[in-house]
Amino acid sequence: MELKVIAYARNGHTDKFGIPRQSRADSPILTRIVFEEDYSIREAFRGIEGYSHLWLIWGFEEPSSREGEKQKTSGIHHKLPTEDWSPTVRPPRLGGNKRMGVFATRSPFRPNSIGLSSVKLIKAYPRPLPDGKGERWELLVSGADLLDGTPIYDIKPYLSYSDSHPDAINGFAAETANYELQIEEKEFAEVPENVMEDIRYILRQDPRPAYHDDCEREYKMDYSGWRVVFRVEEMKIIIVRIEHIETN
Amino acid sequence: MELKVIAYARNGHTDKFGIPRQSRADSPILTRIVFEEDYSIREAFRGIEGYSHLWLIWGFEEPSSREGEKQKTSGIHHKLPTEDWSPTVRPPRLGGNKRMGVFATRSPFRPNSIGLSSVKLIKAYPRPLPDGKGERWELLVSGADLLDGTPIYDIKPYLSYSDSHPDAINGFAAETANYELQIEEKEFAEVPENVMEDIRYILRQDPRPAYHDDCEREYKMDYSGWRVVFRVEEMKIIIVRIEHIETN
Fold first, then answer.
1. Alpha carbons B21 and B3: distance in angstroms, whole number
2. What pTM, to 2 d.p., does this model score?
């Protein structure tokens, strides 16, 4: 089957480093789902605001810009040809040195590189195009684990009576799901408070590849026009500096 | 993106009529997910039995048989060209006469005709091919809302900490989710008990198109080699007869 891109995700994750490993209901991180012209039809969204949560079905491919916006050049964009899969993968949360079957993981390196995320719906609205040429429909959602520019193939309402299994057994992912790092408090007056809140949320989830555990090592993460440099000592994040960067 | 079929669903639903409208955790209906040769690799399933639930990502297209099995000819198979979508659809549970936006429904008539179902995993195992030419890996699952022969594009583990939102608000689907019909007790000694149990489950969910409410009308549903003829009086199912049919 040939999938057509119906929308692109737009958010502060211009860098693969820092994207949460799964979508999370408590995430403050906002993503705009910007519909392509053919699907940007008011009627197609009738009733959608009655749902608190949605499913996004999306592609792990190299992100593209939507028409009318400049091509992003920053960030570590990754091209995943769909031929490139392996029967086993090394989940980062298992330390990156234990192999699991690809169908027992959410790894991107699958036979078909499609991703699945549940997100909170905040609002559905039309937004004028920057050049005054009409408008595009958008959904504002929170909790998406997506790179900026990710292509979206489908949006479905979340139905709790068929999609929610709170007692599901999570296999090897169970033991590794719940821990948070602490952050050493420090002032970064030049960073807007909402961006700073997102950065703190991302760092608390421990964005490091799990096979690194070197307290001297400095990590760099780009988010929403800022480059965050940090170290991790035991279970504590030390932000070294935050610099403004060019994203367009 | 071009999706490759990795497996086909095999179950008693040779007929579109009777397929549950969503996957249901309490369903007794079993489906075998039979992997195509290229994906039928023992290692790809390592760790999968640690999960109680899985996601299936599948296609609403005309089903095909897998290699080595006869083409199914019974049932109302439906071809859905992906060009065939409309911004609004008429959900059967709303009586079939109220239009909702396609992104607020799980309708098959979407820009990309992909479906999403959570199922219970019972077992992963290799099974010999009928002609003695090697084996194929299969997953046995329950609760799938799929037509026999449905192509499968991806299998993912269900992660309760990111996928389960028991308090999600279900929009217009909320009011219509929970009711069951009663079944008038009658003996059908020639039908195997496990098939009879599935048939009773399907009938209790009310498989009628919602815009029909004629107690004289006889409905026909094919399931697992049997044709079930029934009527509905008020909230009660009356099974008129069950006949054996040829499915291959």
1. 24
2. 0.88
